[in-house]
Amino acid sequence: QRQLVESGGGLVQAGGSLRLSCAVSRSLFSIKHMGWYRQAPGKQRELVAFIPKTGSTNYTDSVKGRFTVSRDNAQNTVYLQMNSLKPEDTAVYHCNARWTTAWGDRDFWGQGTQVTVSS
Question: What angle (nearest 5°) sits at the alpha carbon of residue 97, between those of residues 45 and 88?
Fold first, then answer.
């Protein structure tokens, strides 16, 4: 059973929008922190948004003002709203979460969802 499941990716034209979802198998209140990452072909994985347990989400400079993280605690789901998409946003997007297990803190990852932005 996957602990995190992403959805919402797809093909969109430049300037368009997508909303990604990350459904988590546990209460968001039990999570130490979360993040949205992306990896484009031939490139290293990049942190897009870091979501602390408390406080504000931090965004990488290239998405500031265009991407917004939100959360639905009742649904144990975190969203990444992506507006004004650019071809350089094309990547596989993953969500990540860290929580405490019987063996200590562990990082969990979703399977990823493909976002393709055409010019």
Answer: 30
Report how far apart the first and last C-alpha atoms of the chain are (Å, whole number): 37
CB 57 within 8 A of CB 49: yes
**DSSP letter (8 states) at residue 64:** T
pLDDT per position as a tens digit, 68-110: 999 999 999 999 999 999 999 999 999 999 999 999 999 999 9
Give me the long-range contacts of 24-30 (CB less than 8 A, separation at least 24). Answer: 24/76, 24/77, 24/78, 24/97, 25/1, 25/76, 26/76, 26/99, 27/73, 27/76, 28/71, 28/73, 28/76, 28/78, 29/73, 30/99, 30/100
Rounded CA separation 5/96 (Å): 10
